[in-house]
Every structure is written in structure tokens, then in C-alpha cells.
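Entry type: protein chain
Record version: 2
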Amino acid sequence: MEAYTDFAKVYDEFMDETPYHDWAAYISRLISGYGISVPYKKKSEDPTQEDGAESQDIDAPTSQPGEEEEEDKEALLLQEQNLVVELGCGTGSFTEEMAKLGYDMIGIDNSGEMLGIARNKMEKAGLDIMYLEQDMCELDLFCTAGTIVSVCDSINYLIEDEQIRKAFTKVNNYLYPGGLFLFDFNTLHKYRDVIGNVTIAENREDCSFIWENFFDIDTNINEYDLTLFVKKDKSGDKEEELFERSIETHLQRGYTLDEMKAFIEQAGMSFITAIDADTHEQPTEDSERIYVLAREHGKLMN
């Protein structure tokens, strides 16, 4: 079965302890320190403005001929500079945390089931987020973005060199000049030495899963077969509880930091820094998940 179909229905329940809020706060600090995007909320902190007003959207009281067109152009460029695009957004939990921090967000994922849940959550939260169903290797935006992010090891689903190069080239081409690409990835060490060939199981009241890992040392690909048991709604007067069983197979590849640096350079971007996602220090041989920051450095000619 294709990944993130039935799993999408219970994804948020199994990920309920994931610190999306903390991730967003830290990544926001990284964007502030290394990037060019600014949350709209921060642009609205002028005490002379009314609550909720966005400084870049306020019209000048008067304008000379030709100035209005130039101001509109500058406003559009500013919107692109401050736009943040998330690749592999899933059910939108991290996307929403970034939106709550004031960022103008677009979430992209290739699972329609996951995006359906993301859109429902967005409506309930009263947020304004654009969600697009796309493969990150075929990224197609209507404009550039000042920041493109990807978290929760979405990049590891790209298991071939050419997939990584294609996705990173797309990112570079859609980044605003000088824009920031910030992503995380699970390391080869994590798949090979920590979770490879390990079985993980978890039981909840309404659902359970068995996660069986199989690591291939020749390809550095970790296959995990996910068996789900999800409680079905009771029908009629039956008292017994029925669970529906489904199986999904996921493939993720472990990478080294040196490999990621090479892919970044091949895509035309410049490497900025790497950070251990758990310690927020310099990565080591024992790092299991690493943040990588790269910058747009000119566009590649097709």
C-alpha cells in the first residue's frame, strides 16, 4: 500500500508528543539569524498601527504618477521575500506552528490524505495557509520564496541521488535571491546503528502499530513495514470492538553530512552551517538528526 494513506488517519495521534512548537520556535530563530524572511506579526508591532495591521500593506496617503505601480511591485517582492514554503508538510502541524508565529506559509506534500487532514485542521484553527499536493522533486510555485523548509525527515524519502539533486535544484530555482533553505535529515548512523532491524510497537486505545525496520547496508535504505490496527466505529447493537488492519511500506535512505553538502553545491546553493537537531551543537558522528542551512547562490540554467 502507498505510504501515508491509512496511516494519515492516525498520524497525529501517534505523533502527539512531537514538539512541533519547540521546533518552530528554534527554526524561527535560525531564519532570523541566517535568512531574509520576516514574520508579518513582527512587521505589525509598530504601536501607531492598529492590531492586526500589516505594515507592508498600508498605502501611502498620497502618491505621484508612476509611484503607485512601483509601490505595488515592491510590495509583491516583499511578500515573496517573507514567504515560507514547507516541503513534506504532512498533516500541517509544523506548518500551523509557523503560521502562528506570523509567517506567511505554503505547505506542500504528495499525500492527498495527509493534506486533507491539514486543511481541516487549518479551518478549525482559523488560519490562512495554502496547501498544494506536489512531489518535492516536481516543485512548482507561482513565485519565489524567501525561505524553504523541510522537517521531520521528509528529505530521507528521496532515496536516489538524482531525486535529491532534482529536488534541491527546484528549491534553489524557487528561492528568492539570497533566500534560505533549511531542512533536517536522519543520518546514516541513525538508520544503520540505532533503528535498523529493530521492531517498534505501540498500543493506544483506538489504534496500535507494529513498525518493523529492515536496513540494507548496500543501499543505505531503511525499509519499514508499518502494520496498523485502527478501531472501527461500532454498528448496530454489537458490543464487540472491531479493528481494521492495514499495512504500509516506507523507504527512507540514510545520508551523511558530507553527502548533503555535495548535493547542495550540485544544486547551485552555498552551504551555510549544520546543527545537531537534538543538542543544537555542532554535529558529531553520533548525531541522529541534523539541520542543514544553505543559501540561494544564483540560478542554474536548464
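Comment: The CA atoms of residues 165 and 297 lie 15 Å apart.
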